[in-house]
Write a structure and sequence with these properties.
The protein is mostly helical and 220 residues long. 80% of the residues lie in helices and 0% in strands. It has ten helices and no strands. Helix 1 runs antiparallel to helix 2 and helix 9 packs antiparallel against helix 10.
Length: 220
């Protein structure tokens, strides 16, 4: 039950979960942001229309988004072992989390960039800006509020994925919920882990909305 040992385990599990979520989110955006930019600028209404590139990249993104995380987690274990040297523990979960989340992030970024007013883009083009100048001086700055909201959604999605990893020894709050709440029928532990996860989700969502409001008066 909830003794000092269990409290210590819960605290360690919170840190493990935060490690998995934060590191995976950063790496997912390192990969997913460029994917989203390319998807946006190469579509038929983009600044660099390119149907073959857009179609191929779109198919790859859709394929990886369609694979359930738990299946992907098991499927790429050989790759995970090759990269980090193990398939157990929080570090090993980062690899499948990034592989699963990066395509999702790409679509979120694509959607955010598509909300930018076409008039602003046309004005930049008329002043002689090239494609990459439009991307980092117009598209991304103008889409910052939407990108931050999308980031909050992405982080909470990654948090949900990380909880599933506990089933296969990934560590974190998911492992505590599985090993104690599920297998040992300790309902109190299950409830506590659920409450903690909900609180973490709310914190990330509120932070995302707070920063978005600071950048966009329309959200106030």
């Amino acid at each position: 039950m909830l003794d000092s040992g269990m409290i210590e385990l819960l605290i360690d599990s919170i840190w493990e979960t935060l490690f998995m979520v934060i590191v995976s989110s950063i790496l997912a955006y390192v990969i997913g942001l460029p994917i989203g930019v390319v998807l946006n600028i190469t579509n038929k209404n983009g600044i660099c229309p390119n149907k073959p590139i857009n179609a191929v990249l779109g198919v790859l993104v859709n394929i990886f988004r369609s694979v359930p995380f738990l299946i992907l987690l098991i499927w790429i274990q050989p790759i995970t072992r090759m990269i980090v040297g193990t398939t157990v523990g929080p570090v090993s979960v980062v690899v499948p989390l990034v592989v699963s989340a990066a395509p999702f992030v790409g679509r979120m970024v694509e959607s955010s960039l598509s909300e930018v007013d076409s008039g602003v883009i046309e004005a930049a083009q008329s002043m002689g800006s090239n494609s990459w100048q439009i991307v980092y001086k117009v598209l991304i700055p103008e889409a910052k509020p939407s990108l931050l909201i999308g980031a909050a959604i992405s982080v909470t999605t990654i948090l949900g994925y990380s909880s599933m990893a506990g089933i296969v020894g990934g560590g974190g709050l998911g492992a505590v919920a599985t090993n104690y709440g599920l297998y040992r029928y300790e309902d109190l532990i299950m409830l506590i882990t659920v409450v903690i996860i909900v609180v973490i989700v709310q914190i990330f969502q509120e932070l995302g909305m707070m920063f978005a409001k600071k950048l966009d008066n329309r959200l106030k």
